[in-house]
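Here is one such protein, fold included:

. . .
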Amino acid sequence: MSHADNCILAAHCTLAGGEKCNAICPSYVAIHGADGLGGRIGAAGVPAEYRRLTLANSPARQAQVEAYKTAAAYVGTFARQFTGERIKSLYLFSTEPGTGKTTTAAALLNEYIIRHYIGTIQRNGQPLNLPAYFLDVNAWQTDYNAFNRPRVPDHIAEPAAARYYSALTAAQSAPFAVLDDIGVRDASEPFRADLHAIINARVTEGLPTVYTSNVSIGELAQVFDARLADRVRDLCGVVPFVGGSKRGLRAS
């Protein structure tokens, strides 16, 4: 296996597959880390199974042809990050689980990191260490519960709280973000308020966000308040995902 198979920059790199394409390539380290688990992809919080995904190799691509046409066009707008033009948000939706929403959202985040890194280098700049962030809302809620239950030992509560507030800050401020599975229904009001704060901050600052949900955008007012639902809809394109679960194909 070529080392290029391990790097999401390979399709854009003239050295890919050659003798200089290895684990000590500075660009590989910048994106994936010296151990392949860090770098900008690791800092972004991308789940391990999605860290090598792009739109081209996504397992959801074949089943979601129309969604991937939209996704490809969306990636074409990422150059706007260098011109100050606004990049809109996307809302990936299906009522069924396992149709490829999360897979696609992660691929889009990786595509953003690719274009941020290459575009910044081409402009003689220094790429941001955190150009994008992936927030798994369910995992984030698990951390919230871990430090808010009664009698939770400090050695469990304190790391959970640290992770929680670190994720909140990153999700509010990253130039690009994925908020995975925002249709949380069984949540306390304080947790819901923190999720509201992330969405509100991103909309206010005009930061592009990819949302995934099994709740239609028209029903968001039943999950959040009507004002916040309206803010999510602002400059946000809805991308439907069709069919049933493809989880056996790693499309979740």
